[in-house]
Fold this sequence. Notes:
alpha+beta; 17 strands; binds zinc ion
Amino acid sequence: MRPESLEFLTKLLNTPTPSSDEARGQRVWLDYVKPFADTVETDTYGNALAILNPKGSPKIMVEGHADEIAFQIAYIDDNGFIYFSGVGGHDPSLASGQRVHIHGRHGEVLGVIGALAIHMQDRSKKQDTPELHDLFIDIGVSSRKEAEKKVAVGDLITYTVGFQQLNGDIYIARACDNRIGTFVAAEVMRLCAKSRGKIKAQVVAASAIGEENGLYGAEMLGYSVKPDAAIVIDVGQATDIPVTNKKRFGDTRLGLGPILSRGSVNHPVLVKRLEDIAVKNKIAFQRGIDPRRSGTDADAIFLQRGGIATAAIGVPNRYMHTPVEAVHLKDLENLAVWLTHFILDLKPNEAFKVKI
Ligand SMILES: [Zn+2]
C-alpha cells in the first residue's frame, strides 16, 4: 500500500470513534480527503462528506460508517468501580481482562475490565457466560467521589488496542468495522481526483455516524444527499478460520477480493454493473448473499426518497466485533480501484432502474 495511505489508515483506526461521539475520527477523515475534493461538508450530527464534480450526474455516494462499537458508563459504585452498557453488539465473554480508555470530559482515563482470578473460580461448576452488566471497570481509585473527578455516567469507553501488522498484508485492529469502509471511500475520492477530467458523475464520499446503534447517520445521508446510487462499504464475514460453518455462511476469504452481495437491498442493475466492471478490469471479487437484510447502512439508505439504488460491498474480515478484527490490505486497495473504474465508466446521467 502507498505509504501515505497506510499512514492515514493507521491514524484513522487508532483514533477512538465510538458511536455517538465520532467527531475526532471524522476530523482525521476530513483532513485527509479535503485536498482531493471540491468541497467538504458536515451536518448536524457529524456526518462528513467530500464532494467531487458537484455539477456532474449521476450522483454516486460511496459510504462507510466511521463509528465503532463501544461501552458507556451506566453506574459507579461506592468503591469507584464502574459498570457499563454495550454500544453496539458485544460478545461479553471477550471483555474481561481488557484494557480500556474512558473518554471523559477531562480527557482519556485508562481502566481495566476486572476478572476473577482462576484460583478463586469454582471450576467444578459450569461457568455461565457473563452479561455485560456483571462486568466492571477498575480505574485504580478507592471511592465514587474519586472516580467522579475523572469520569461520569454517560462517558463512552473503547478498548485501547490499536492497529498492528499480523503478517504480510494482514493487519488487525479493534475498529476495522468500519473505518476500513471510510478509508476506502476516501481512497476512491483520491483516485477519482486524479482522473477528474474524465469523470461525468458527481462523486460523494461519505463517512457516517451511528451505524452500530441503528444505521442513524446513513438514514440521514440517504435523505439529505439523495444520490442516484449508493455503494455502502462495510466489513463482511471471512469464513476462512477453523470454527466457521461454510454450509451456513459461505466460503469467503481474506485477500481474495471484496464481497459483492446479491439479494434484498442490493439493486440488481447496480450490482450487475459493478460485476461487469470488475470482470472487465480483472479485479478479484467474491460473491455473497443478503437473503433478508444486509445488516449495513445499505438497509437505511435504499429506503429513502422512494428508493435509492444501493449495493453493499463487504471487505472480508475475520473476528468481527472483537478487539482483533483482521483485514487484508489488498482487499482495501482493490475495492478502491474497482469503485473508481465504476465511476469512470458511468455515462452522463446514467440511471439505475429495474426494467419491467
Ligand atoms: Zn459492526
